[in-house]
Amino acid sequence: xxxxxxxxxxxxxxxxxxxxxxxxxxxxxxxxxxxxxxxxxxxxxxxxxxxxxxxxxxxxxxxxxxxxxxxxxxxxxxxxxxxxxxxxx
Length: 89
Fold this sequence. Notes:
mainly alpha, 93% helix
């Protein structure tokens, strides 16, 4: 190190500072990447849960619509029967 000129020492110091900053930046990037992966996994699990609940709701709605359609048919049939009885009077 004593054999270096002041200019070379200055360049070496700048390079060392740049290398240290790069290392710090890389470590921060790796930490951020790890956090983003964890967040992505959490969001994926939540979306899966939401999709599952949505499918359950859709199945329930289908059953409910079928039941309501059946009731409507029965009500219409009953009304027709009552109308027939009223006409016979």
